[in-house]
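Lay summary. Proteins are chains of building blocks that fold into shapes, and those shapes determine what they do. In this project we predict the shape from the chain. Here is one chain we studied, written as its sequence of building blocks.
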Amino acid sequence: MAGKDHLTVYYSDPVKKIPIETREAFSKMINEGVKPSKALVTIIKKFKLGSLDISNTLALIEHAYPGIYLMGEGLQSRIVDSNYPNNTEGLTHEEFDEAIDRLKDVYDGW
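And here is the predicted shape, written in a compact code that computers can read:
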């Protein structure tokens, strides 16, 4: 493959401003055993966000699950491509929760 360029694209848009309390509220729900998808939907409703910017979705997940590798299983790409959780056609809540559980298991196993 000499002479071929390889391009890796990372989602790097800046995090849009949302209330700082969302991080703590999201992490608290996760620690209480609430499924990640339910916690995201609750954050949107509780803080009247209307929708959740992808950068915020990723930031909330990384805050609640420090060390989780979102690129694992292509989860970050699936979140970005589908505009999850605002659109659940490309990534359902169940698929999202299952992927988080699998990624947590990998991280916990290190």
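What the prediction tells us: The chain is about 50% helix and 0% strand.
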